[in-house]
TrEMBL record:
It comes from Streptomyces oryzae. Pfam families: TetR_C_24 (PF17932), TetR_N (PF00440). Residues 15-75 form the HTH tetR-type domain. This is TetR family transcriptional regulator. Keywords: DNA-binding. The lineage of its organism: Bacteria, Bacillati, Actinomycetota, Actinomycetes, Kitasatosporales.
Length: 211
């Protein structure tokens, strides 16, 4: 995992000590999992004492919640910006392709953070989990909206719009689980491939849409 890839996700977190703890927690959770990670592990990676952690976060679970919230807010913003940027697009196929490309690229380029964000949700407390679910639903709503527009315009042939939106979202998210910078495909190439897959899932046959 690269330091820059993680740092970029939490660049706006202040004070610096709180950000360093988040970065240490991401590294530890990604390598060992939430339950196997101790607060001492996190503090050590941040170059701080275990006692210093509690000045900024009450519990290890609260750290995970902040990581999850920041990650989900960023990924939702990526989807919103990609769809808003194609508001004048001639067809829904182009809007879907661009949204999927952007969503996939984010999960690949920030794969360490995204892996924790997307696959450690079960460790969140009930209240924190409910807040994250709202953000996850927003991602689904954005994709579902594009699919609904495409069906209404006769561009897509979908019998289950909600199910297809969930399938497309799951496909994109799963990139964080297996992506490696040393792999043979770049984030851009994976985004292109997945955009084509999403269009096929939506019942659209046209390929080669502009990036």
């Amino acid at each position: 995992m690269t330091t820059g890839e993680i740092d970029e996700s939490f660049g706006g977190v202040t004070p610096d000590a709180a950000r360093r703890l988040l970065l240490g927690a991401v590294r530890a959770f990604a390598e060992r999992g939430f339950h196997a990670t101790t607060t001492r592990d996190i503090a050590g990676r941040a170059g701080m004492s275990p006692a210093a952690l509690y000045i900024h976060y009450k519990t290890k679970e609260e750290l995970l919640f902040h990581i999850s919230r920041v990650g989900h807010e960023r990924s939702v913003a990526v989807l919103e910006e990609s769809v808003a940027g194609t508001a004048g697009a001639a067809d829904s196929a182009e809007r879907l392709a661009r949204a999927v490309r952007a969503f996939v690229r984010w999960h690949a380029e920030h794969h360490t953070t995204a892996r924790v964000v997307q696959y450690e949700l079960a460790a969140l407390g009930e209240e924190h989990y409910a807040q994250i679910v709202v953000l996850r639903r927003r991602s689904e709503e954005i994709l579902r909206g594009v699919l609904e527009e495409g069906v209404a315009a006769g561009e897509f042939d979908i019998s289950d719009i909600r199910g297809t939106a969930l399938a497309v979202m799951s496909l994109c998210i799963d990139v964080a689980r297996w992506f490696s910078p040393e792999g043979r495909r770049t984030p851009e190439e994976i985004g292109e491939l997945y955009a084509d897959l999403a269009l096929r899932m939506a019942g659209h046959r046209t390929a080669g849409l502009p990036a």
